[in-house]
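hey
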């Protein structure tokens, strides 16, 4: 089993980001995902990513996402790893952690999923830009799914409710307190 190293280092050279035009075209293509057959969608993503320099981390990420979104997680996982190895950073790097963590869970690599998502949760929030930080609750949600699959349901529910509490119009503090109690092991009671 190949393990994802949560502390992957970016290469010495940072790839040039895709142009604004390229980003607009990939965004438009993703918006059309539900309007075309999966094979056509993957082919169109590949054609767009082929416009980027060989080995570009964004190309690997977009191809991985296309496979993942069309039910081919087994083909997506190596491409996610390739994107990380090639120095993917920022918002797409965090998305890769979420998506690869989810894919690994679905493929039965639960320990690897847990390690990857835990490492992502443990990243210093002060080092994240606003867009990247906006995915914090997504990281927590997918980590909660992996925890539940690992038999750690109370911890998973606590994590999910804590994330939800930040978005409620009322009862934020109450729900956050109840969620914290869930993460505390129940006291053993003598009969």
């Amino acid at each position: 089993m190949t393990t994802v190293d949560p502390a992957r280092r970016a290469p010495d050279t940072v790839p040039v980001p895709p142009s604004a035009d390229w980003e607009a075209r990939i965004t438009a293509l993703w918006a059309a995902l539900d309007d075309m057959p999966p094979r056509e969608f993957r082919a169109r993503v590949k054609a767009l990513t082929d416009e980027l320099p060989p080995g570009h981390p964004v190309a690997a990420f977009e191809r991985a996402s296309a496979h993942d979104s069309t039910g081919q997680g087994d083909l997506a996982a190596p491409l996610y790893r390739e994107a990380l190895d090639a120095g993917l950073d920022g918002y797409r790097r965090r998305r890769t952690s979420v998506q690869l963590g989810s894919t690994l869970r679905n493929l039965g690599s639960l320990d690897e999923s847990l390690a990857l998502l835990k490492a992502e949760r443990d990243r210093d929030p002060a080092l994240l830009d606003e867009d990247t930080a906006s995915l914090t609750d997504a990281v927590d949600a997918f980590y909660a799914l992996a925890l539940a699959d690992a038999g750690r349901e109370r911890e998973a529910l606590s994590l999910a409710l804590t994330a939800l509490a930040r978005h409620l119009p009322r009862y934020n503090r109450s729900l956050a307190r109840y969620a914290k109690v869930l993460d505390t092991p129940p006291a053993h009671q003598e009969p």
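The radius of gyration is 19 Å. Residues 90-106 form the longest helix (17 residues).
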